[in-house]
Amino acid sequence: MENIQMSKKQKAYNYMKTKIINGFYAPGQRIVINQLVKELSTSAIPIREALRQLEAEGLIEYKQNIGPIVTPINDYEYVDTLSTLAIMEGYATALSRESFTEKRIATLKELNQKMKETLTNFDFGEFGKLNREFHVLTYDQCPNKYLMETIQKTWIRMDSIRLSGSTFDPKRANNSIHEHDHIIKLLSEGAAFQEIELAVRSHKLNSIKSFHENKTHPNGTTFI
Length: 224
Description:
The structure is a single chain. The chain is 70% helix and 4% strand. The chain has helices at residues 2-21, 33-40, 44-56, 75-95, 102-120, 124-139, 145-161, 170-188, 193-216; strands at residues 60-63, 67-70. The chain has 2 domains: 2-70, Arc Repressor Mutant, subunit A (Orthogonal Bundle), CATH 1.10.10.10; 75-216, Four Helix Bundle (Hemerythrin (Met), subunit A), CATH 1.20.120.530. It has a two-stranded antiparallel ribbon with strand order 1-2. It is mainly alpha-helical. The longest helix is centred in the last third of the chain and has 24 residues, at 193-216. Strand 1 and strand 2 (67-70) form a beta hairpin.
């Protein structure tokens, strides 16, 4: 019985987290437990347990007289966290520069091409997944294990505050793909440490610039 209950909790957890991260549940949106009971064909108990886990991760918070809601976006926290990722991922990618075989470069090109195709097909959720996969591949051979652990922890933090419930920003998405092409070129040519670090760091910081522009003229989600 315990294993079945845990399975139901995990199912509810995965279901809600995916909807939060992909923007189906907007920041500040109330989570209606009775509705989830119907959608998942389960009782309220595993859903409440999953909500507590999401609360511990910062994705859900409880409001008095309202109940669970999706944690509102904290603009300052978003910018600070992304700035930190820009520094760490730039350095980690530069440290990984000697690990880029022809096969790894080909995989990066393939991922970037798939990202272009998702724009044509308006599959923005898939674009975000491929974007994350692209960046992980650029630094996952970093020899500094502590840096890698810190990046992973920072991404967990980013997932709890990332932009969701917004429309797509084609301009930033297209620019991001072109910046990826430049990063791939540097890695394939064996560019200097400083040049690679600067390119990756600038790529991330450009997302912050786009975020600020969208706050002034809201028209989309910033992809990082």
